[in-house]
Amino acid sequence: MAKITPIDVIKGITGKYGSGSNDYFATNKSSNKIHLAKLSNPYKGPASEKQLAQQSKFAARQAAVSAWLNANKPSEKNGAKGTEAYQLAQKLKKTMHFSCISQVIYKHLDEDGTVKLPTAHPDLPGGEGEQTGGGGSTNPTPSPSTGDDDNGGDSPEI
Which domain holds residue 59? Predict the structure, then answer.
């Protein structure tokens, strides 16, 4: 099958095509694939209570992700590569085959809006525990102890 490389005018096209049309263009920036979709039966009524609740939940999550990215992204304050948490999120993005870092942040966002990145992942070297968002601080998970000896289970008895 032949591969088509779109010209620059078409490459960046997104959104609705025409004022009375239900055709939409979308360009995937990571793969440069252009998709055309047709909205066949658009909803014209007012939003329900459930829809409004979902919209407000999404807005709160989006605000938390944006705040985390703004606090941790590369800058003069955070350095050329960003904070350690941002660099870990970049590694997780590559490991999980996501197209953008926001997807990693959404995946590790709690209900209360706190980002908890894992420091232990099957494809990443590192210890146990989770890394919280803001300043890259860690909350290590305590190692399990065997319990019955006086030294707390840190070393075996001989």
Answer: 50-139
Is the residue at 157 inside a domain?
Answer: no
Task: Encode 87-147 in three state secondary structure.
Answer: HHHHHHHHHHCCCCHHHHHHHCECCCCCEEEECCECCECCCCCEEECCCCCEECCCCCCCC
CA-CA-CA-CA torsion sign (65, 71, 72, 73): positive
| Cβ atoms of 86 and 115 closer than 8 Å | no
CB 132 within 8 A of CB 112: no
Give the model confidence (pLDDT) of 88-143 as tens digits: 999 999 988 888 899 999 999 998 888 888 876 565 555 444 454 554 433 333 33
Q: For 23, phi and psi rounded to 5 degrees?
A: -90, 135
Cβ–Cβ contacts within 10 Å for residue 117, how many? 23
